[in-house]
Design goal:
heterodimer; A: 111 residues; mainly beta; 6-stranded mixed beta sheet; 11 strands; 0% helix; B: 114 residues; 4-stranded antiparallel beta sheet; 50% strand; globular
Chain lengths: 111, 114
Amino acid sequence: QKEVEQNSGPLSVPEGAIASLNCTYSDRGSQSFFWYRQYSGKSPELIMFIYSNGDKEDGRFTAQLNKASQYVSLLIRDSQPSDSATYLCAVGYGSASKIIFGSGTRLSIRP
Amino acid sequence: EAQVTQNPRYLITVTGKKLTVTCSQNMNHEYMSWYRQDPGLGLRQIYYSMNVEVTDKGDVPEGYKVSRKEKRNFPLILESPSPNQTSLYFCASSPDRGRLETQYFGPGTRLLVL
C-alpha cells in the first residue's frame, strides 16, 4: 500500500516567518512530487512540483526533495495571512499516471 | 478561458438511485481523473483516463464507473450510491499523463447520499 504521510496540524506561524511543511512517502519508485494549496471549500491549486533531488525555488516557495530519505518539504518564506490554507503533498508514480495525496497540513498564519 | 467544469455542484440523493456527475474540459487534454476528498483522508484517486476509450482504476474505484467516449468529457457514474459515497468529488485534467504538474481541477461536486 503506497502511502503519503503529512502532519495534519494545525501549524501556526507568525506573519513574516518561515513556514515549514513536511511529507514522507513510502514508494521508492515515486517519480514526481507536488505541493497543492487548498482553501476551504475550494479546489486544490498547484504551487510547486519537483522531480529531482535538491531544492527548487519559486518566489517565496521552496520545495526540497530527498529521495534517499523519502521525504519532500515545502518552505514558505515571509508568510502572509493569505497563505493560511491546507497544504496537500502528492506523489506521482506508475509513469505518472497515478497520484497519491497526503491528508494535508492545515497552516495558519497569525498576524 | 481554460477550465474544467463539473455538474452538478451540489447533489442530495438517496441510497440506490443511480446518478451521474459530469466533467468537461475545453483544453483538449488527454488525461482526466476523478478524486474524492473526505475529512482527514486527503484526495483519493477513483479512476483516470489517459485518452478516449482508455480508463484505469485508481485507489478507490469500488462503487464507481467511468467512461471516456469523447476527449472532452469524463463522467463519473454511481450505479447504486451508498451513504459511504458521501464526499466531495473533484475532476481534473492535464495535457497527458506525464504532465501532472499542469493538472487543472474542477470546482468540485459535493454529494450527500441519504
